[in-house]
UniProtKB/TrEMBL annotation:
Listed name of the protein: Cytochrome B561
Every Cytochrome b561 bacterial/Ni-hydrogenase domain range: 18-238
Organism encoding this protein: Methylocella tundrae
BP GO annotations: respiratory electron transport chain
GO MF assignments: electron transfer activity; heme binding; iron ion binding
Length: 250
């Protein structure tokens, strides 16, 4: 497909970028992270909002459920990065590898010149952003599993924490949130002290993730406006429409 411009005809070429599993991961991840952020904000302000004890438990249960969806989806994406198409694989996602520094410099210079390079997959700068998002999600996954185990006594660590805090002679399966009668207070306080650093890291990573996701959205919009390529629609169709030869084309 061609279109006339002041500089001559523009040639549009369609490239297949994102395979179906990658697209499904993206939108499931987006929805689950939005759910986590929304419920997380309420949890952080639960006292100011006047939530009851049972309301807090219910909200944490919803938050944890979103977390399990995110965790399974993320771990699946890490596996798919070994088997997906060339643009879904680790070497096209993670920053680094032969030629990466030069590719990053080249992309930045082209962007500053007003004629940014177009990529079928992630451009070199986007690879840094995507990897940072993955890292923060992994931190949230690891710390969240500990927190849900200490708060709700849910898998995979919940039974172990229940054994830790159960009063003598009490079946750990009877340990539930708020069931103070079956809990050894000294053990419970020790468990809460253990969980403290995980909560702090989880909260800090929460704020960092919110900032990075905001920057990611801004970058997508900016790239769409300056480079074109149907970046947003490509996460639905799998295909990008580019006007210049991409450095990562097959």
């Amino acid at each position: 497909m061609m279109q006339q411009s002041s500089d001559g005809p523009i040639q549009y070429t369609e490239y297949f970028a994102w395979d179906a599993p990658t697209r499904w991961f993206h939108w499931i991840n987006a929805l689950s992270v939005l759910g986590l952020i929304g419920t997380g904000v309420v949890i952080l302000n639960d006292d100011a909002l006047g939530l009851s004890a049972s309301g807090k438990i219910a909200l944490k249960s919803v938050h944890a459920s979103f977390g399990y969806v995110m965790a399974i989806n993320l771990l699946w994406r890490f596996v798919w990065a070994f088997f997906g198409n060339r643009y879904a694989r680790w070497r096209a996602i993670a920053p680094g590898g032969p030629g990466y520094p030069a590719a990053l410099r080249g992309y930045v210079m082209s962007f500053l010149s007003g004629q940014p390079q177009q990529f079928v997959g992630h451009n070199p700068l986007a690879r840094i952003g995507v990897s940072l998002i993955f890292l923060l999600l992994l931190v949230q996954l690891a710390t969240g599993l500990v927190i849900v185990g200490t708060d709700l006594f849910w898998p995979p660590f919940g039974h172990w924490f229940a054994q830790w805090v159960a009063a003598p002679g009490v079946d750990p399966a009877a340990v539930q949130p708020g069931a103070s009668a079956v809990i050894n207070e000294a053990s419970y306080q020790a468990m809460r002290a253990f969980r403290g650093p995980f909560v702090e890291i989880h909260e800090l990573a929460f704020y960092a993730l919110a900032v990075v996701i905001t920057l990611h959205i801004i970058a997508v919009v900016s790239t769409e406006l300056h480079e074109g390529g149907a970046i947003t629609s490509a996460m639905f169709t799998g295909r990008k429409i580019l006007t210049r030869k991409p450095p990562d084309a097959t």
